[in-house]
Amino acid sequence: MNNHKIISHIPKPIVLLLCALLLALPAAAAPDLSLKTDTAPLYAPDNGYRFRTLPFISADGKRHYRVFVGIPESPPPAAGYPVLYALDGNALTGLLSRDLLRSLNRPPVLVLIGYDTDLRLNPAARSYDYTPPLPDGSPVPDLLHPERRNGGAEAFLTLLQQEIRPQVARLAPLNTQQQALWGHSYGGLFVLYTLMREPQAFDRYIAADPALWFQHGSFLRRFETWFRQPQALQGRHIRIDQSGSPSAKTALTEAARQKTAKRQQAAAAANANPCKLAEELDALEAVSARYRRYPDLNHGALLGASFTDTLKAFGQASPNPPHLPPSPSCAKMQKIIIPMSKG
């Protein structure tokens, strides 16, 4: 069939619109760092929560934080509310629809740790706060953005443990045995760093697309050496979520393509395999580790899907999200496919 004949029968305005959409694809494929935080859902009537904002400052005074704390309006359980801590809080507030929050049968206290900005993301700050230092404690340039620094995870963990959590505990009765930490990308890396540094700090750790390639796998190797120690992780529940491979049809800018190539090279050098890592963790005594794969979502889209599915599972939403059965091998784990959350 002659394609030129087909095109000739398409009205000119539609042809122009299609061309405009195709030209817009490269920009749409990259994260829009100008997007503003949507806090309107926090204050929607009858959402079942009362939200307040707590300010914090880093020890060196260079980073300012805005922590959104949501307290359920329902009475606390006898043991106190469960608590879900989540990083990149500015990017999560817009996900908290009334329907999602009202679906929770066991609503947790929500602690969304963001930055003191009206933007959804603060790339430079999160690149520092969420990434581990070198073994000698020194910071390093970011692999993908050399103008940014990595290596502030220890200081950020201290802020979380010694300042943020104590203030949250003053706001409501909390269940100290049911507390979870969630993070995405560098945030997922911080979740694993916290698991290594203070495994008893939380009982559930959820890492979505953790940057296992970080520093060509230097942290991953330290983490793997550590968790093989006897009783290092007893009683912990761990989940690793992974997005699908970038589609060949996805249009990327040249800069985005170069960053993707660097990330892939670092991952190959690190031998980073989230599925295999989850399998090795699950094989440890008294440890529960699960792997979830979202094949139809890219790295950026996984942030929202992983967080909302985590909230549904942790808050026992109705209907319940897909249950993850035990997975004896990565070959079978790869078949555990979770659809994109619609909440």
Could you explain the architecture of this structure?
With 343 residues, the protein is of the alpha/beta class. The protein has a single domain (3-25, 37-333), classed as 3-Layer(aba) Sandwich (Rossmann fold), CATH 3.40.50. It is built from eleven helices and ten strands. The protein has helices spanning 3-8, 12-29, 98-102, 123-129, 153-169, 186-197, 218-227, 254-270, 274-282, 299-314, 330-333, and strands at residues 49-57, 64-72, 81-87, 109-115, 140-141, 149-150, 174-184, 204-208, 237-243, 288-294. The strands form two sheets. The protein has an eight-stranded mixed beta sheet with strand order 1-2-4-3-7-8-9-10, sandwiched between helices. Strands 5-6 form a two-stranded antiparallel sheet. A hairpin with a 6-residue loop joins strand 1 (49-57) and strand 2. The longest helix is centred in the first third of the chain and has 18 residues, at 12-29. The protein is globular, with a radius of gyration of 21 Å. Mean pLDDT is 83; it is low at 1-29 and 334-343. Its EC number is 3.1.-.-. Keywords: Hydrolase, Signal.
Layout of secondary structure:
Blueprint: H1 3-8, H2 12-29, E1 49-57, E2 64-72, E3 81-87, H3 98-102, E4 109-115, H4 123-129, E5 140-141, E6 149-150, H5 153-169, E7 174-184, H6 186-197, E8 204-208, H7 218-227, E9 237-243, H8 254-270, H9 274-282, E10 288-294, H10 299-314, H11 330-333
Parallel strand pairs: 3-4, 3-7, 7-8, 8-9, 9-10
Antiparallel strand pairs: 1-2, 2-4, 5-6
Enzyme class: hydrolase
Pfam families: Esterase (PF00756)
InterPro entries: AB_hydrolase_fold (IPR029058), Esterase-like (IPR000801), Siderophore_Hydrolase_D (IPR052558)
